[in-house]
Amino acid sequence: MTGKIEQLTIPPRTLMGPGPTDVDPKVLAAMSMPLLSHLDPHFLKIMNELLDMTRQVFKTSNTFAAPVPGTGHAGMEACLINALEPGDTAVVGVCGLFGQRMADIVGRTGADLIVVENAWGQPLDPLAVNEAMNKAKKPKLLAVVHGETSTGVLQPLGSLSKIAKEHDALFLVDTVVTLGGCEVRVDDWGIDIAYSGSQKCLSAPPGLAPVTLNDRAVEVLKNRKRKVQSWYLDLTMLLQYWGKERFYHHTAPINMIYAMHEAMRLLLEEGLDNAFARHARHGRALSAGLEAMNIELPVDPEYRIPHLVVARIPEGLEDAKVRRMLVENYGIEIGGGLGPSKGQIWRIGLLGYSAREKNVLALLAALEDIFRVQGYRGFDPGAGLAAARAVYEGK
Fold first, then answer.
1. What is the 3-state secondary structure (H, E, C) of 211-275?
2. One pLDDT digit (tens) per residue for the chain, 395 residues
3. Fewer C-beta neighbours within 10 Å, C or N terminus of the chain?
4. Phi/psi class of residue 207: alpha, beta or left (left: φ > 0; alpha: ψ in -120 to 50)?
5. Conformational region of residue 351, where left means phi above 0, alpha means psi within -120 to 50, and beta covers everything else
6. What pTM, to 2 d.p., does this model score?
7. Hey, is 100 helix, strand or coil?
8. For residue 299, what are the CA distances in angstroms to 224, 289, 296, 305, 317?
9. From CA 137, how far away is CA 127, in angstroms rounded?
10. Residues near 235 by Cβ (< 8 Å), separated by ≥ 6?
11. DSSP state of 137
12. Which of 136, 77, 132, 138 is nearest to 108 (CA)?
């Protein structure tokens, strides 16, 4: 590359995909604060505060509730490779892409993998899970996804937690899209290991994966027969870095820690119940608007993630073209389908700071405009906006 390189500029966007999300300007401001050393006394104070806030958000009293450096997939991998060794048996629930990825990681640990599958767009069947756990004889771990981002399905966890406990297995849960957006109760639901991601309902930039382990899970780590296959994601060392010892492990992503600290602070300042209600309200408004436009929402209402609306693309509309027009003409990003649902669904996120009335109304208005431009006549103009406004007005 020759010549002068122009200063970086970013076009305005409203992020309404399944992640990342828009973030509060206060979070961006926190990221711009001066660097500290990762062992500076003031930074250690920030770490302690973040530990406490992470416990509150996970609703746990676990000693370890801290972010792993990396995206949500780093949290996924860290939890699985630390809990499992060759010769162990793990049962993994798969009804979407992220369940598949958990199964892939388990296969790489050398543990024996048993997969329990259901169709994409459906939750796991507890009877099938119990059958698989019985087949495993001595399963060490049951791993499931709470909110399957690829399908919009919210997995009920109560019966699965009970099954894990009946088999004396660790219960590991992916809460990447649910933490901060709807109820996650690590202690009350008997979850031994959970992980999430900074870039969804926690509304911080991508780059950190909050993880929590209870004493039972920590004891499993301490009694491993061999070292964890990844040095960087070895939670036994990260426990010491985030614990009282503060043993040096890696140079922490200082400014990302600042961002997460501010994002957690804002979430707790709003109040978790208020945040859950906000996410659900905007999800209801968007769902009502889409249905009023004759757009099908394929996930059973009982199992929908409140803040991730999955919509079936009406026949006669081209997925990529609609999403491209949304970005280019309106600055709005939504997500497309993955795997078998590619080209068939839109995944619309109302996550964290993006869960706002103006975003819902702007998207519905933009879709109406695009439908008209593309000659699609299968909807009643104005009906979507009217239905969403009725939700906001409490009608």
1. EEECHHHHHHHHCCCCCCCCCCCCHHHHHHHHCCCCCCCCCCCHHHHHHHHHHHHHHHHHCHHHH
2. 567 899 999 999 999 999 999 999 999 999 999 999 988 999 999 999 999 999 999 999 999 999 999 999 999 999 999 999 999 999 999 999 999 999 999 999 999 999 999 999 999 999 999 999 999 989 999 999 999 999 999 999 999 999 999 999 999 999 999 999 999 999 999 999 999 999 999 999 999 999 999 999 999 999 999 999 999 999 999 988 888 877 788 888 999 999 999 999 999 999 999 999 999 999 999 999 999 999 999 999 999 999 999 999 999 999 999 999 999 999 999 999 999 999 999 999 999 999 999 999 999 999 999 999 999 989 999 999 999 999 999 97
3. N
4. left
5. beta
6. 0.96
7. helix
8. 41, 16, 9, 9, 20
9. 16
10. 64, 68, 78, 79, 82, 211, 213, 221, 228
11. S
12. 77
CA dist 232 → 127, 237, 249 (Å): 37, 9, 8
CA–CA distances in Å: residue 302 to residues 112, 130, 306 = 33, 22, 10
Q: Give me 174's structure tokens.
A: 């992916």
Tokens matching residue 296 = 């099908």
Q: Residues near 59 by Cβ (< 8 Å), separated by ≥ 6?
A: 184, 185, 186, 187, 188, 272
Within 10 Å of residue 266's Cβ, how many Cβ atoms? 20
Residue that the structure tokens 């219960």 belong to: 171
